[in-house]
Amino acid sequence: MPITKGHLDPRSRAERRADEEVLAKFEAGKFLSFPPDRVAAAIRHVEQAYASRTEGVTNRPRWAGLIHDAVFDRFPAPIDCLETVDE
Amino acid sequence: MSRANSRTDEAARALNDWFASVLRSCDPIFQMSETSAHRDAVVHAMLTRNAKVVVDSELDAEGRLYPAVCKALAAACRQLQVETSIRHWKAALQNVLATSDQLSRGDEAVGLALGSPAAVFKSLFDEALINAGVTDRPTILVEENRRASLGLAINWGMRFLLAYAIELSAGRVGRREAKDVWWIRGLVERLRE
Questions:
Q1: Among all residues of chain A, which has the CA nearest to that of B85?
Q2: CA of B106 to nearest chain A CA: how many angstroms apart?
Q3: Is A67 helix (H, G, I), strand (E, B) or coil?
Q4: Nearest chain B Cα to A62, which residue?
Q5: In angstroms, rounded to a whole number, what is the distance separating the alpha carbons of residues B94 and B64?
Q6: What is the pLDDT of residue A86?
Q7: Residue extents of the structural domains in chain A
């Protein structure tokens, strides 16, 4: 709810205290601060996920042409692929 | 030889002659370059371009797929250096007529929407073209399998063309002198009478 001029502060005492704590942390440069090891772990996680996605894309051409399907062995020459009738 | 068999032979001969004329029509494009490497590149481009059109298009009843199917078939034959014969076309005719007959007696009770003969042959043609690696969709097959798949694409493409022709809108006709998809339709229709 917006605080408008001429009205009482609608916040409860607990809400006011919480706002003051956040403001104090913000002014002290401590708001949303995380230990350096957690920040480093988050960066590492994002970088690894990006690297694995990139590797998947760059390796895709190398996956192509890997499968030998025995179904096609029954057609030793291209002309054998064309069904014909017995005379 | 029975009369029906004789008529099928005549139709197969006419189709083989027609396809030879399709190849002759495409050859000036296939052979327009001086070097064999460039001629091969033209054939491959004609194949991939039209294979993509076929695979990306829905079935229609107006014959719009006819040019792309013919060019893809012609380029595939030139790329693999195969030539169709009367016996190949006769097998295709018999195959399409038998499939049309069987699918028209389809059992609705099992709830399988198999589609029309043209739809069935198009799905086989599409899949063979994709497996052959001549569309923009990935294939995982090794090179020799891709060549076999392209050969099978010719086989299914011939059948698709015949089934597609007989499923065109009955109301429309082509130019009387043209040997186009409407001519194929008339040829196959006469065998069903």
A1: A84
A2: 25
A3: strand
A4: B140
A5: 24
A6: 78
A7: 33-58
Q: Which helix (H) or strand (E) holds A45?
A: helix A36-63
Amino acid at A29: G
Interface TM-score (ipTM) > 0.90 = no
3-state secondary structure of B122: helix
Q: Which residues of B touch A82 (CB under 8 A)?
A: 82, 84, 88, 91, 151, 154-155, 158
**Does the pLDDT of residue B74 top 80, yes or no?**
yes
Binding-face residues of A in 52-71 toward B, CB within 8 A: 60, 63-69
Task: Report CB contact under 8 Å: B138, A64.
Answer: yes
Q: What is the mean pLDDT of each run of 10 residues along chain A (87 residues)?
A: 69 93 88 86 91 71 69 91 87
Those residues with Cβ within 8 angstroms of residue A16's Cβ, 6 or more apart along the chain or in another chain: A9
Q: pLDDT > 90: what percent of chain B?
A: 77
CA A43 vs. chain centroid, Å, equals: 13
Interface check B82 vs A, CB under 8 A:
yes
Query: CA separation (Å) from B21 to A33, B45, B180?
Result: 78, 21, 11
- Using a CB-CB cut-off of 8 Å, the residues of chain A touching B143 are 65
* More confident: B177 or A1: B177
Q: Which residues in A lie closer than 8 A to residue B92 (C-beta atoms)?
A: 83
B 115-144 near A (Cβ less than 8 A): 133, 138-144
Asked if B163 and B189 touch (Cβ cutoff 8 Å), the reply is: no
